[in-house]
Design goal:
Layout: E1 2-9, E2 14-20, H1 22-27, E3 33-37, E4 44-53, E5 58-64, H2 68-74, E6 81-82, E7 84-89, E8 100-106, H3 110-122, E9 126-133, H4 142-146, E10 152-157, E11 164-165, H5 169-177, E12 183-187, H6 190-201, E13 207-210, E14 226-229, E15 232-235, E16 242-244, H7 250-257, H8 261-274
Parallel strand pairs: 8-9, 8-12, 9-10, 10-11, 12-13
Antiparallel strand pairs: 1-2, 1-6, 2-5, 3-4, 3-7, 4-5, 13-16, 14-15
Helix pairs in contact: 5-6
Length: 279
């Protein structure tokens, strides 16, 4: 069992949770993920690290309340326990020698962008973060990103309620046009990553994308995260989650993402009928 040591509601549907996990905290690296199970008999879901402390024995992750399991998570408090937390899983993000890099985080993708930006900065990279969300209330980890030494943060919101109004591709394109980038790293909704990769491809800027949003069981057994990278078949969880964004078959990926949408809605509706605490 893994004791919960921290909870925070970031917005109406986005939450942060910290659990006591000393062995995981000692091995965690930027870009990796966890498998979390709330209780015996429940489903296992993949969630990416947002932070960890090997000295204090805790790990943290950020999640959006969208289905039954994430609703269950959102009702837990400090002192409660999770049945399982397995990790770190996945290949760590390459952070050495990337030079001038843009780290683009969209929505809850900031949970990955934060440790990646921190690790790249610590490795000597010149890091510009582009943090995007639909509106100001949905921005995630902005203060933490701004606190990173030597990291520049640009905020973009769809409605202009914070930072620049528009899409993350606008400041990304300006950096490319200025010849100010050697690499880009994007994490967030698949459609956002697709257009980030399309933007950098025009300028020949190598681009890494984190395909954690397509993962289901996190072990390679279910095949739900099968993606085509160039002319090869790969699995997001065991071969990634990081891949060359210019080689991803985005149409196939986004089609596969929709496979379990209806099942998720049915499970959440059933849970709503069963649980009076559901909101």
């Amino acid at each position: 069992m893994f004791r919960i040591v921290h909870t925070r509601q970031i917005s109406d549907a986005v939450f942060e949770m910290g659990v006591e996990a000393p062995r995981i905290a000692r091995k965690a690296k930027a870009g990796q993920f966890l498998m979390v199970r709330v209780a015996e008999g429940g489903e296992r879901i993949p969630l990416t690290f947002s932070d960890w402390s090997a000295e204090e024995d805790w790990i943290r992750f950020i999640y959006m309340r969208v289905g039954k399991t994430t609703h269950q998570l959102s009702h837990l408090s400090v002192g409660d326990e999770l049945a399982d937390v397995v990790g770190p899983l996945g290949t760590p993000t390459h952070v050495e020698g990337v030079g001038r890099v843009a780290v683009i985080g969209g929505g809850v993708g900031a949970a990955v962008a934060y440790p990646v930006a921190r690790a790249m900065s610590a490795a000597g990279a010149r890091v510009t973060v582009i943090l995007g969300a639909r509106n100001a209330e949905l921005l995630v980890l902005e203060d933490e990103l701004r606190a990173l030494p030597g990291v520049t943060v640009n905020v973009v919101t769809d409605d202009g309620s914070a930072g620049e109004k528009g899409l993350v591709t606008a400041p990304l394109k300006r950096l490319c046009e200025a010849g100010a980038l050697d690499h880009a790293f994007a994490v967030g909704p698949a459609i956002m990553m697709k257009f980030c990769a399309a933007t950098t491809a025009e300028f020949g800027v190598p681009t890494t994308v984190s395909l954690n949003p397509i993962m289901v069981d996190g072990t390679g057994m279910c095949g739900a995260c099968r993606v085509t990278i160039g002319d090869q078949i790969r699995f997001g969880c065991v071969d990634g989650p990081d891949f060359d964004g210019h080689l991803v078959n985005w149409e196939e990926l986004m089609s596969r993402q929709r496979v379990y949408v209806d099942d998720e809605r049915v499970a959440d509706a059933d849970y709503q009928r069963e649980c009076s605490c559901h909101k």
